[in-house]
């Protein structure tokens, strides 16, 4: 039996490339199965399947190089379905969201139905660049609306792997919203075991100062192959970052990456350098991105305005869709600086 999702052992992101009509059914099946493992109740797994089917069908009919990403919510209990493409984009997004609108002679219930079914729905489209949409469905009706907005993530295994050696988590504590991105050395099950070990250690120490969290992870990872780790904390007016290995942090502004921070060389669990915290001033509404080296770092050199304009819910999938190294595990995590 497939294991259920837990905070310390989250499922990786499932990617379904929509390159054939049969992929629409596959996306719906993956969404339903993931919903059940995420603890969605009653008719919600079927709702998740319907949402995935509608988004995938829209990609098949109108887009090119489209994919659906299905995953547990990073913060909160529930499921997220993200669709990204490199299609022509929508000239009039509001019209496309209206029930009854169609350009293919169908009933035209797709995006309007998705917006009604999802507990949270975010979509952006730009002519010539493509469309990205995120539909979130809470685990229960009681939990609807409780998942935190302003966060987003993808965590993809390398092509050909069933286990993901990357992992990420976000926790809210009295010390501020704190996030971790982990990249277990190598691929497959041993790397995934290191990543899960790091998440368990992070949960036990996430309210501590960032250097103390890093030392806790170092002790926990001594009997694994080790990992690269990036720790981020959002505080009023500033972001703190502490990283070791091949994890990068980037602070975005509306028109360009404002600041990039590399991590110190080393391997958490094997040769930990003295943890060093770097701070950067932040403004409400800015995005902070933390990602593993499965996402090419060149994305931040001169990103197009269409990418910079994406909200936190959509940016990680867009980065993975356009800048992922498919032979490596890849994780991107985004947080919005709170107002």
TrEMBL record:
Taken from the record, one Pfam family name reads SpoIIE
| Domain called PPM-type phosphatase: residue spans | 148-337
Q: Which InterPro entries match?
A: HATPase_C_sf, PPM-type-like_dom_sf, PPM-type_phosphatase-like_dom, Ptase_RsbX
* Gene3D superfamilies, per the entry: Histidine kinase-like ATPase, C-terminal domain, PPM-type phosphatase domain
Record's PANTHER family? PHOSPHOSERINE PHOSPHATASE RSBX
Q: What is the official name of this protein in its record?
A: SpoIIE family protein phosphatase
Name the species this protein comes from.
Streptomyces zhihengii
């Amino acid at each position: 039996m497939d294991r259920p999702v837990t905070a310390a052992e989250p499922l990786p992101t499932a990617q379904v490339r929509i390159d054939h009509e049969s992929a629409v059914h596959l996306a719906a099946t993956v969404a339903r199965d993931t919903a059940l493992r995420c603890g969605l109740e009653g008719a919600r797994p079927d709702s998740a399947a319907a949402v995935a089917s509608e988004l995938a069908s829209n990609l098949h009919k109108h887009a090119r190089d489209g994919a659906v990403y299905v995953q547990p919510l990073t913060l909160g209990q529930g499921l997220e379905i993200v669709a990204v493409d490199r299609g022509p984009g929508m000239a009039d997004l509001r019209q496309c969201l209206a029930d009854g609108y169609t350009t293919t002679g169908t009933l035209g219930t797709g995006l309007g139905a998705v917006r009604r079914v999802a507990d949270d729905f975010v979509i952006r489209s730009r002519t010539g660049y493509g469309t990205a949409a995120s539909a979130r469905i809470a685990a229960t009706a009681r939990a609807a609306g409780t998942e935190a907005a302003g966060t987003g993530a993808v965590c993809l295994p390398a092509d050909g792997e069933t286990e993901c050696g990357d992992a990420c988590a976000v926790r809210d504590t009295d010390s501020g919203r704190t996030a971790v991105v982990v990249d277990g050395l190598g691929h497959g099950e041993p790397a995934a075991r290191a990543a899960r070990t790091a998440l368990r250690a992070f949960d036990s120490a996430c309210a501590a100062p960032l250097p103390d969290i890093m030392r806790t992870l170092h002790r926990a990872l001594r009997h694994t192959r080790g990992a690269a780790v990036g720790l981020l904390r959002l505080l009023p007016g500033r972001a703190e970052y502490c990283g070791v290995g091949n994890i990068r942090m980037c602070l975005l502004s509306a028109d360009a990456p404002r600041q990039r921070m590399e991590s110190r060389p080393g391997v958490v669990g094997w040769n930990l350098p003295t943890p060093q915290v770097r701070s950067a001033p932040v403004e409400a509404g800015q995005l902070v991105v933390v990602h593993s080296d499965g996402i090419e770092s060149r994305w931040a050199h001169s990103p197009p305005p269409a990418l910079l304009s994406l909200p936190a819910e959509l940016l990680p999938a867009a980065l993975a869709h356009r800048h992922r190294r498919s032979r490596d595990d890849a994780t991107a995590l985004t947080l919005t600086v709170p107002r």
